[in-house]
Amino acid sequence: MARAKANGIEIEYETAGDPKNPALLLVMGLGGQLTIWPDAFFQGLAAKGFYVIRYDNRDTGLSTDFDAAGLPNMADAMGKLMAGQPIDAPYKLDDLAADAIGLLDALGIERAHMVGMSMGGMIVQILAAKYAARCRSMVSIMSTSGRRGLPTGNPQTLALLMAQPANLERETLVAQGLKVRQALSGGGYAEPEADLRAFVERNVDRRFYPPGAARHYLAVIASGDRVELLKTIKVPTLVLHGEGDPLVPVEAGRDVAALVPGARIETFPGWGHNLPGPFLPTLIDRLAGFCKDK
Fold first, then answer.
1. Over 90: is that where the pLDDT of 264 sits?
2. Hey, which of 171, 210, 225, 259 has its CA 20 to 30 A from 193?
3. CB-based contacts of 79-87 (< 8 A; 24+ apart in sequence)
């Protein structure tokens, strides 16, 4: 892995593939480290002829954190959201999008396929709208426009994501991580428990950092929706969503596709809010097939 100075911060990143190939930037979701993108997915896209970059968003993993901003007062922020009042935040999604452009600048990359998952999908939506000249294409995965009134996630899954661990011992964190990964499944594409445990352990050992995830959530709600912004996107767009997504229901993906002119959408039964090993070959094929020659 490597580190780049970009947009006034330092960003941890990793690359795979030939730098002469078309660049493909993977943008992760809320609180997710770059290692949430499975190695098989990362390397699989490189094998399809792309120069693939995955990175830690600010306030996550090994990139610059914002501890000085403190923990957000989410009750106050939600109250302001309901009242239609501005929400103060140390950064917003526009800043995370600017980080992505700063990383491309640091790597000397003029244009890239922008592929984002969940909150990362929100970020690549902004990139496609506001930095169109830097985008070969946009792929929004398991994400949303943020439109109010869309179906919300499963309450039990949301509660599990918000739950605090009983202590910070490694096995406690791993056990909770396993529960979260299982809850995010869409009911299909079952993974061996040993593989799931190894995945969770790798991420826990790299860094466990809930304050960054809380500030990411604040950034999401402080940034508002992207309904009007999505209507301005002109770059080729693919929307991918699981029909079993318990966190961001598939209706949100359909909404994104309906808002972006000319967007394609594919939905998959049994796929949840995760990247399960058995589903990766299908996902790699869909992405590579769409991005090729764009």
1. yes
2. 210
3. 81/221, 86/222, 87/218, 87/221, 87/222
- Mutual angle of helices 119-130 and 210-223, in 10-degree steps: 50
Using DSSP bridges, classify how beta strands 237-242 and 9-16 pair: parallel, antiparallel or unpaired. Answer: unpaired
Q: Which of 143, 147, 148 is nearest to 123 (CA)?
A: 143
Question: What is the dihedral sign for C-alpha 75, 77, 78, 79?
Answer: positive
Per 3-state DSSP, the chain is made up of helix, strand and coil in percentages (nearest 5) of 45, 15, 40
pLDDT band at 293 (very low <50, low <70, confident <90, very high): confident
Distance between CA atoms of 242 and 250, rounded to whole angstroms? 6
CB atoms within 10 A of CB 279: 20
**What positions carry a catalytic annotation?**
118, 245, 273
Sign of CA dihedral 155, 156, 157, 163: positive
State the pTM of this model.
0.97
